[in-house]
Amino acid sequence: MRIATFNINGVNTRLANLLAWLKDTRPDVVCLQELKATDAQFPAGAIADAGYHTVWQGEHRWNGVAILSRDAEPIVTRRTLPGDPRDCQSRYLEAAVNGVLIVCLYQPNGNPRPGPKFDYKLAWAERLNAHAAGLFDTGAPVVLAGDYNVVPTDADIYNTRSWKKDALLQPESRAAFSRLLEQGWTDALEARFPNEPQWTFWSYFRESWARNAGLRIDHMLLNGPAAERLTDAGVDRAVRGADHASDHAPVWVELTDAIDHAAR
Prior knowledge:
Deoxyribonuclease I, Chain A, six-stranded mixed sheet, 7 helices, 12 strands, globular, metal-binding, endonuclease activity
């Protein structure tokens, strides 16, 4: 079972890129972020023609998340991150697909900081951590996939010099992500490439793609039952190099079929 996450940076603007990638790689489940489309504007028909069932949570201009499934229709279990009933931004979607609980998330960027956007980022991260703690212990395989807008360590960026003041690298942002991992989640890319940090984002500015000046901010975290089924993980870097590409590349994990513990 291949599960992927992809910040598409405008699902209609980059629809051709998305459809080409789906055709080439045929992931079983895909989490999309930054749809930049309302519910009515989401290209459900084109994605269905590509062979995918879809659930989505749109938003005008910004944000928006979706879960695509090739074999079975996702069963939505939650459309909002709990903890703040006033929060109406479309950044969280949770659904069950073939026995795996898939969480698609788009954590706030937090810039500029200091200020209300950074405060919202940190509060959102704490809400995620609180909810994730319950998900971790469900007993079912759980995958937390998405754009976390956090560079976990200095090894996860080409160079920190131009990013020192950015919300993605701040100690508070990193500490929140670290507390999430301390619950026991496995960072799939870090586990697969412990000595070779994998970039997932290259800014449109300063020829970042041409210079391979990347960052790792898209993460796939697995609880115990999911982690024991992990066989591989990676980044589809070539997607970032296509014409009219998103500034992110898809990240994916491969999980084996369900493990029968009783048969062991």
